[in-house]
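Working notes for the structural subgroup meeting. M.R. asked for a predicted model of this chain before we commit to crystallization trials. I am recording the input and output together here so anyone reviewing the notebook later can reproduce the run.

Input as submitted:
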Amino acid sequence: MDDETNDKEFLARRFEEYRGHLRSVAYRMLGSLTEADDAVQEAWLRLSRTEERAEAEEIENLGGWLTTVVARVSLSMLRSRRIRREESLDAEFFVPDPIIERIEGGTGTGGSASDDPEQQALLADSVGLALLVVLQTLTPAERLAFVLHDMFAVPFEEIAPIVERTPAAARQLASRARRRVQGTAPVPDPDIAQQRRVVDAFLAAARGGDFEALLTVLDPNAVLRADAGVLPGAAASRLVRGAHAVAEQVMGFRQLAEFSRPALVNGAYGLVTAPGGVPVSVAGFTVVNGRILEMNLLADPERLGRLDLTVLGAFPAAEEK
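Returned structure, recorded in token form:
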């Protein structure tokens, strides 16, 4: 085995030590698992371009170096995404990619069947969909400063050159982002059993077509965000506000409720709907004070097809319901 092969294997081993962490950073920055994987892959390509093992060994803090690379790539992606939305007049949000776990034995506890260390790293410290939605309202620089400092304890001295600001200015970016997050992102009820009771009541009301029962489990200021992709006659994204309006939307799709099954979605109780055994939507719920305050619904077939739903096991076919 020649030296070049040894060098590449050495780099690959070192990189794998940080892959899960890097994917977590990119996911919080981008809210997209596919884009997060692209950012991580770009970090690997840049590391692999180091010509010799000695050159890689000279990087004093490889984890920090890789985090910086992923942050820069993610920042570029965010800025490009913002420009595309401005040009296409798309909605100012998209439903983030959900991270899904199986609920074992009806107990309400998570139990991912995945042995993938990258997936396990995301699950270990998964961030709620509601927070990811709020992060989208920040400028790319604010989001980077907040994610790196508040979520991963990266010093402002290291954040500053990424956003091309002074450390003091980077601190201000994170401070503005923090105020926005604290003032906007709802804090969900932490008890999964409580979340389950509320969502199960919601599902029972939807299956029974009981409009009044839906209203009792929805917060008066409930919000529904839905991404249906390019389905015929459907907007790419939809934002519905108010319990009455949200309940009306749910009633319009109540025939699908019988095919819904529970799952943990970004650490909270949620639902996956799969008529005929084919997943058509993933719903994440934010339960606050015993009522549903937010629903984030992903129904884009293309994006659903890229999610790893194998952790949920086989879906019941329509005739089995």
